[in-house]
Specification:
The complex is a heterodimer of chains A (149) and B (508).
Chain A (H helix, E strand, L loop, with lengths): L1 H10 L1 H25 L10 H27 L4 H19 L18 H4 L2 H27 L1
Helix pairs in contact in A: 2-3, 2-6, 3-4, 4-6
Chain B lengths: L8 H19 L9 H13 L14 H13 L4 H21 L5 H13 L4 H5 L4 H14 L11 H16 L7 H12 L1 H25 L5 H16 L2 H4 L11 H13 L7 H19 L9 H26 L10 H4 L4 H34 L6 H11 L5 E2 L5 H7 L12 H5 L5 H10 L4 E4 L8 H10 E6 L4 E5 L17
Helix pairs in contact in B: 1-4, 1-5, 2-3, 2-19, 4-7, 5-15, 7-8, 7-9, 8-10, 9-10, 9-14, 13-15, 13-17, 14-15, 15-17, 18-19
Classes of the chains: A mainly alpha (149), B mainly alpha (508).
């Protein structure tokens, strides 16, 4: 019964939302890896040595996001929420403190080429996604702790 | 009662009013804030200086805003500060009406949330502090709805009468206020029921007819072929002209994403909130805006306001409901006595998930799209340019000997400052007037000639691009200044030879 209840909780309520966030993050990571596989730099217009550096960064970010996304999908509550909160906070800090010396942030690499409405509003979507991951994590974490209590 | 619960709307209203006051103090003396401020400012100052000439003015908008602000300027001094105060006071009245209609439902969170959503739409903040017709007209239309929300079990006949009268006045500020009418119908139906609403209809209509008729009577002119006909004819011509339709591109695009999504969550929340009357007002107004968009060409971005206002109210409802659900979920409210049903039963897991989704999505979109726009709005307010010193100098010099001059809308503020105006027939000369066929450049030339207009500021790509106007200009005028943006010409003195095309003081 307990196992069934936990399974149900995972697919309903905030659990489903955390799963959705985990899948989204995994998808973003896989899109970056696909970019690297296709030999693209992740930022149109960037060529030469900088493109190589950027590709390495896209690879690292892609692997990291895929692992963290899968962890969020697989971990039990509230640890999935904790992971999502930390990941979201990390993205937010990255958005605010990203040094210009590193060049353009490849955070939406692999996705931005799909649609103009993402490409034209890259900074806005990056901040939106970072905040969304953080808030879904934090709000569901709080809900999960309350349930445990 | 919860922290975001009943009757906290007025705290929210106080926050909104303080922000409005701060915005007014920042913008009160800026000549241009809204994109059409120049038109309205010129009409108001013309009404102050040449009230006897108003019947000659072609006007595609009702007169109430102009007449009211002209009177305020006569009492408290000319300039943009009084018309701007009128808009800000109208906005404060509108948010008071929303707080009153949403009492017990919206809470401070909902009201401030709705205001923040509205302010985050690009350039909407400029509209709120502008002296344009749209925000003031809509504000008083919302007040008319608020007046239908009595405190007692029934409305007395004077209350719907007053509501109708305010709506009549709002429509005399700008006819588009009528778009909120479906909102008033749904609001009354939800607040008072079908039979009671029918009882209110007669006094409401009496108030509307009395007010609308009175303002029409007091207007210098009131012609439906100008008020409506010009817009419809311009629509017909514009739809056949791809260049003109460029104006209406990008309507309801990513810039208003946060409001659209928040409003969507609001629509999904209405059932859980048991169809609150303020929400039904927003739904009705949204339906009115959609119906209007279906039949009219919405020329300018600021017509997004017709969607932004109801969507912001719905977004505010979504936010406050989400906060309440999470509050109930997180607290031990189920153990203690609770004043309302929402607090007595613990929220279902689906409701909690929906609340988390609402809050996180709206807040994330606001952080990504809205906050940057809000900062951009404030920057735009603070960096508005001042009058052109060259044009102002020539206008002031001309004003000593002549009352009329001609200039495009870009230089209307300079006209107000110099105290010189276009001839009454050319006071309102929008592109729509040409598109509707209600004026031609030949008519403009005839009017300039008959009024002996002494000074002309013209644009190369507009006035000079027209052969009729250009030919008249070369024969009767000589250039004074030529800059990148415009050219200043003056009428040739009697006996003065025509311009040889050489002697021009290029930009000085």
């Amino acid at each position: 019964m307990l196992g069934s209840s936990r399974w149900t909780q995972r697919w309903t309520g905030v659990g489903a939302l955390v799963l959705l966030a985990g899948c989204l993050l995994t998808g973003l990571g896989l899109a970056k890896l696909a970019t690297v596989v296709h030999g693209e730099s992740g930022a149109p217009g960037v060529t030469g040595a900088q493109a190589g550096q950027l590709q390495n960064r896209v690879l690292v970010q892609g692997i990291g996001e895929t692992i963290v996304g899968l962890a969020i999908v697989l971990l039990p509550a509230p640890w999935n929420s904790v992971t999502l909160t930390i990941a979201g906070a990390g993205f937010l800090v990255g958005q605010i403190l990203w040094p210009s010396s590193l060049g353009p942030c490849p955070c939406l690499a692999g996705v931005e080429t799909w649609a103009a409405w993402i490409r034209d509003y890259k900074a806005e979507w990056r901040m939106t996604l970072a905040t969304w991951f953080f808030l879904v994590g934090a709000l569901s974490w709080r809900s999960a702790w309350r349930k445990e209590g | 009662m919860t922290g975001v619960g009943k009757r906290s709307e007025w705290w929210g209203w106080l926050v909104v009013v303080l922000c409005l006051a701060a915005g007014y103090l920042t913008t009160r003396n800026l000549p241009r804030v809204g994109p059409d401020d120049s038109w309205e400012l010129l009409k108001i100052h013309f009404a102050v200086r040449h009230a006897d000439q108003l019947p000659r003015v072609w006007n595609d908008q009702p007169w109430l805003h102009t007449l009211l602000n002209a009177r305020l300027c006569q009492w408290f001094g000319e300039g943009p500060h009084m018309p701007r105060l009128f808009t800000v006071v109208s906005m404060a009245a509108m948010w008071a009406a929303i707080a009153w209609m949403g009492r017990g439902t919206l809470g401070a969170v909902g009201l401030v949330g709705a205001a923040l959503l509205m302010a985050s739409v690009p350039r909407d903040l400029l509209l709120i502090f502008s002296i344009m017709l749209e925000p003031a007209a809509w504000a008083w239309a919302v007040v008319a709805a608020g007046l239908l929300s009595g405190a007692g079990p029934r409305l007395r006949p004077w209350q719907p009468f007053l509501s109708g009268a305010v709506m009549g006045a709002a429509m005399h500020l700008k006819l588009t206020a009528v778009i909120t009418a479906p909102g008033l119908v749904l609001y009354s139906w939800r607040r008072w029921g079908f039979r009671e609403s029918l009882r209110l209809l007669l006094p409401w209509l009496a108030g509307w007819v009395a007010s609308f008729g009175l303002w029409a009577r007091l207007s210098p002119n009131f012609r439906w072929d100008w008020l409506l006909g010009s817009h419809w004819m311009a629509n017909q011509h514009a739809s056949a002209d791809p260049a003109t339709m460029e104006y209406v591109r990008g309507f309801l695009g990513p810039n208003v994403l946060v409001v659209v999504v928040a409003g969507g969550f609001g629509l999904l929340t209405l059932r859980a909130l048991q169809w609150p009357a303020v929400g039904m007002f927003a739904v009705g107004t949204l339906l009115g805006a959609l119906a209007f968009k279906a039949i009219a060409t919405l020329w300018w971005w600021y017509y997004e306001y017709q969607f932004v206002l109801p969507l912001s109210i719905l977004g505010g409802l979504a936010l406050v409901h989400a906060v309440r659900v999470l509050q109930a979920h997180w607290s031990d409210a189920t153990k203690g006595p609770a004043p309302d049903r929402a607090d007595r039963t613990p929220p279902a897991p689906k409701a909690v998930a929906f609340a988390v989704l609402t809050l996180s999505t709206v807040a994330a979109l606001w952080a990504g799209f809205g906050a940057g726009r809000l900062v951009g709005n404030v920057n735009m307010l603070l960096t508005r340019g001042g009058p052109d010193p060259i044009v102002l100098e020539h206008m002031r010099a001309t004003a000593r000997s002549n009352v009329w001059c001609y200039a495009p809308v870009d230089y209307y503020v300079e006209m107000c400052l110099a105290g010189i105006f276009p001839p009454p027939e050319l006071l309102v000369l929008p592109r729509k007037r040409f598109l509707s066929g209600q004026i031609s450049w030949q008519d403009v030339v005839v009017c300039l000639e008959s009024n002996q207009v002494d000074l002309l500021v013209v644009r190369r790509e507009v006035e000079k691009a027209d052969p009729t106007f250009s030919s008249w200009l070369m024969q009767h005028c000589v250039p004074l200044e030529v800059t990148e943006r415009m050219e200043i010409w003056r009428r040739r003195a009697p006996g003065e030879p025509p311009w040889d095309g050489k002697d021009t003081r290029l930009g000085r």
